[in-house]
Amino acid sequence: xxxxxxxxxxGGWTRFVTARPRxxxxxxxxxxxxxxxxxxxxxxxxxxxxxxxxxAQSTYATKALEREFPDSQPNLLLLVDSGxxxxxxxxxxxxxxxxxxxxxxxxxxIGVGSYWQSKSPALRAKDGHEALxxxxxxxxxxxxxxxxxxxxxxxxxxxxxxxxKVGGIVAVRHEMQTIIKEDLTRAEMIALPVTLVLLVMxxxxxxxxxxxxxxxxxxILGTNAVLRGLTEFTxxxxxxxxxxxxxxxxxxxxxxxxxxxxxxxxxSTGAEPLTAVGTTLRTAGRTVLFSSLTVAVSLAAMLLxxxxxxRSFAYAGIAVVLLxxxxxxxxxxxxxxxxGHRVNALDLRRLFRRGQPAKTSGEEGTxxxxxxxxxxxxxxxxxxxxxxxxxxLGLPFLGVKFGTADDRQLPSTAESHVVQQHIRDGFPGxxxxxxxxxxxxxxxxxxxxxxxxxxxxxxxxxRVDGPLVKGQSAYFTVLPKGEAVDDAAQRLVGELRTxxxxxxTKVTGTAAVLVDSKHAIAERLPWAAAFIAIVTLLLVFLxxxxxxxxxxxxxxxxxxxxxxxxxxxxxxxxxxLSGLLGFTSPGSIETxxxxxxxxxxFGLSMDYGVFLLSRIKEEYDRTGDHNEAxxxxxxxxxxxxxxxxxxxxxxxxxxxxxxxxxxxxxxLGIALAVLMDAMIVRSLxxxxxxxxxxxxxxxxxxxxxxxxxxxGLSEGAEERPNRGAxxxxxxxxxxxxxxxxxxxxxxxxxxxxx
Length: 754
Hints:
By secondary structure, the chain is of the alpha+beta class. Helix content is 61%, strand content 8%. A five-stranded antiparallel sheet has the order 2-3-1-5-4, sandwiched between helices. Strands 8-9-7-10 form a four-stranded antiparallel sheet, sandwiched between helices. It has a two-stranded parallel sheet with strand order 6-11.
């Protein structure tokens, strides 16, 4: 081959990832095997709480009460059912006292008490056939779970004249953790084969379809190892594992989908595999890198919140996004080099074409091109209609009510849920849902009595028990009227905290934790939103060089989430479809869930937005024709984005089959958001809005334009000499460089991948 016919010398990044492809894959295999070992048992080290603010007044009071008055914080409840007999009957009382004494002798159990000891009416059902034994299991979440596993089988079941069920916070959280692990395994068993079938339908080739799946598995295993390491330093929520699976499969498949598709396009033009990989990395690879940063930014915003439930999703999400991108940009090119044209092997779609020629990518995009033309021809109609529909779908969110995660997250048949439901329905004064007031400082019995009387006189108070005094500390139990966390109970928290007392008071309890959690989120939410918006605006500007497009991207992305938030309230708060979906509606939405869903869904929407905008920008740089650039961008990416969205939605729906309501809400809600974004916003609203803004879409003031020419990033044109050197050249001064799909080679600016 003569010098003039040799392919261009690969850039630095391409040389790095393709120089020794077999060695790269071998090293990746070894690292993955180590990740499997490092991440083994990670689920057993994850917590099932994390909704409270660690710096809140309620958290301080809870820890102080657990330390000084363990009896005040029972986390284990035994529901003793006497059948048709009275709980005060001699045989029932004798058996209940025996069980109470036996429980008090268990290692790791303190503060044991029962109705038969105290005769407290709060521990006896209204019908007289059920009563409670309460205790406190000591230790961290893992120790409490181990203790529960050890003792529960000895108490659960029939004991003479009574039947016993095990409940309480420890049982709820332990059962939730167990169910999540089981559901996650089932979700993976559902998602993996369905995803493989969809990938085969997209690629045709079984070989090409296996590549994205392999990248996803590597990302998931790597993230599990990262989470295992983090548990040595901080608390991590077990719920984060669901996000690891969903994003690990979804994003890795997205990234691999775009890279493999572009590689196959390059091969179809006659390029050699090494050249095709180089071009793919300079174009689709750069966009994957950029897209992963936008998703990571949205997830990083959750680090601003104090609840470890939210921070756990940031840890897991950032890790899996970066690992998915790294695997797609390092391992996948090595595999493509080794496979070469064999990436198209085992084309299963030939079985159904019966001799008909396969459609080209241009033919596949014809429908999208026609739709883009139609949308832009009727741009005002499509822009207004889609905006109105999205806003209407989001209206139910105006009626959102925030609450706490409790046993109703579990299936109705779960034992701990059954126990708590019996207590809610049959016991007076919401036992376990009261407020505890911690009093610290010297006080006389008369002062305690006066404080108790003033507290009992508050309009929302049913009864005040206590005080129980120990040294210079004491506590009162305040039972509110009505539900434990309704608006009246939350107002009562504020009244107790502002009421004058001759000693320092701190209020805790379910309603107090909710009040503090809502305050912590409201305080930090503007900062998180500003962080996401500012960094997203900057990243999209670096991609497009436009001032208007970043603003459009943020606004339209936020608009794409309205259907998700409306559906969450209509379904999970109001209880519509609860029978079909198999959950119990608590009548509220857990406070942290909307924040989590916004950060995840916004990041995924930006992921698809970046792929569309990068192709539009590439064509606009090539031709300078705004309308044609929009049409071409949708033609080239519409089908691929839709396929990627459907695959990610399948993964999220598999997660949404969970029996835990929060996980079901997360999976199904994000699946809806992803589909709405890909099929409505990217397909209809974005081209309509860009048609209305016309060439002004690409405007930027001189200083910003020069900044972008020097530091910007885009998927496309061949590197231009003297760009950003002050010669005043713009992207439109450079002629088109290559193939019929409109793809040029490399942009100036950021050269992370060459």
